[in-house]
Amino acid sequence: MDKKTTTTALLLAAALLTGCGSGSDGGDTGGKATGDASKPPAAGSPSPSEGTKTEGASHEVTLEVTGKGKTMIMYTLDESKTETVTLPWKRTATITPEGAEKEVGRLVLVTPGNSLGENGMLTAGGCTITVDGKQVADNDGGKSPKPCTYEIK
User: Fold this and answer.
1) Are 98 and 134 in contact (CB under 8 A)?
2) pLDDT, tens digit, for every residue of 88-107?
């Protein structure tokens, strides 16, 4: 086969395959439900207006970064943001896990930048995360190089 014949054969095969499964023969419903729409939903099943989204318990989450001066931080709480802040810094939000977040968790985190240490040198900023009044994460006052993270379920 020459190049032109091969190309034509491939295009023809692609066109034929594209037409497969179009639903015109009644065998494919195109992802639509095939049940009788006039029947009410079975007892215990959610109505279409109710949906299936479920929420977990709400939690008050506080992120804090300690130190002196200004630094850049990155955090994920009710939004993800990077900003330059004056230390000490604190942000609180109410988080309600929804859907799959109840099972796998919703990550909250704060990554502090460097701040002015007691000796006048730049050091890693300290961070903590508090959930419902209980401290759940800290970086040991900046002694650990890791950010503060926690998964809310």
Assistant:
1) no
2) 999 999 999 989 988 899 99
